[in-house]
């Protein structure tokens, strides 16, 4: 099964990390994989374009099926390997509804994080507008306060006590933010969530290799 899968990925990319976590959770180790460098523009190589014509990572092939969108890949793996590894869609309607709500709500969280991190990182300083920087920061702060409230009402994971698809999809975003300097003091519920899950086997086994050799960043320290 896993030998028929190929994953081209980049370190610290939340979309890539989601797929890696999912493969671990479903006990699909041994797949073909290759770590590529964003800095060297390897995600625009022909090898990637042959699988993902957008020139983005992940580029994921599962047998004859191509699933380059991380949400699509994770849902596909859960549905194809329901009886293998950990079951990540709960049976309880209450937990299932909460799981679906949170995992799709994460699109907003991810976009607001990107608006802050990439505007400050990718846009040349002379082209940045202070008003846009402040507006993006305020929007992310408001969003993070929502998630603080959500996590204050749950037991460990986003949809209750059990690790679900929502956690596999959202943990990489939250981990990325803490790597970028998000304050544990200002966001204690998010920090508790991050700390409680970072040693989970699937997460530990796929921890971004670049994070092991570099210190964290400070792009979100004032959020």
Descriptive overview:
This protein is α+β, with helices and mostly antiparallel strands. The protein has 2 domains: 2-80, 3-Layer(aba) Sandwich (Glutaredoxin); 93-213, Glutathione S-transferase Yfyf (Class Pi), Chain A, domain 2. Helices cover 52% and strands 8% of the residues. Helix 6 packs across helix 7 (188-197).
Oligomer: single chain
* Global geometry: globular
Low-confidence stretches: none
CATH topology title of the largest domain: Glutathione S-transferase Yfyf (Class Pi), Chain A, domain 2
Strand content: 5-15%
What profile does the largest beta sheet have? Answer: 4 strands, mixed
- What is the CA–CA distance across the termini? 43 Å
The count of strands amounts to 4
> In terms of structural class, how would the helical and strand content be classed?
alpha+beta
How many discrete structural domains?
Answer: 2
How many helix segments? 9
Q: From the coordinates shown, what is the CATH architecture of the largest domain?
A: Up-down Bundle
Helix content: 40-55%
Strand order in space, largest sheet? 2-1-3-4
CATH class of the largest domain: Mainly Alpha
Please state the CA-atom Rg, rounded to the nearest Å: 18 Å
SSE series: EHEHEEHHHHHHH
The overall pLDDT, averaged over residues, is 93
Domain GST N-terminal: 3-85
Protein name: Glutathione S-transferase rho
InterPro entries: Glutathione-S-Trfase_C-like, Glutathione-S-Trfase_C_sf, Glutathione_S-Trfase, Glutathione_S-Trfase_N, GST_C, Thioredoxin-like_sf
Organism: Amphiprion ocellaris (Clown anemonefish)
């Amino acid at each position: 099964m896993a030998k028929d899968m190929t994953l081209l990925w980049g370190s610290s990319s939340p979309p890539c990390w989601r797929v890696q976590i999912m493969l671990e959770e479903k006990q699909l180790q041994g797949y073909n994989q290759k770590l590529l460098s964003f800095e060297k523009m390897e995600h625009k190589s022909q090898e990637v374009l042959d699988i993902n014509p957008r020139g983005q990572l992940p580029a994921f092939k599962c047998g004859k099926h191509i699933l380059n969108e991380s949400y699509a890949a994770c849902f596909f793996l859960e549905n194809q390997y329901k009886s293998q590894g950990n079951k990540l869609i709960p049976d309880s309607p209450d937990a299932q509804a909460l799981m679906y709500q949170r995992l799709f709500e994460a699109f907003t969280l991810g976009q607001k994080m990107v608006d802050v991190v990439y505007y400050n990182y990718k846009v040349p300083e002379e082209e940045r507008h202070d008003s846009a920087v402040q507006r993006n920061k305020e929007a992310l702060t408001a969003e993070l306060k929502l998630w603080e409230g959500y996590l204050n009402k749950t037991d460990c994971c986003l949809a209750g006590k059990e690790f679900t698809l929502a956690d596999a999809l959202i943990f990489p975003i939250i981990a990325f933010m803490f790597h970028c300097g998000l304050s544990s003091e200002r966001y204690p519920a998010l920090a508790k969530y991050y700390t409680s899950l970072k040693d989970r086997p699937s997460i530990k086994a796929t921890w971004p290799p670049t994070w092991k050799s570099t210190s964290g960043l400070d792009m979100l320290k004032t959020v």
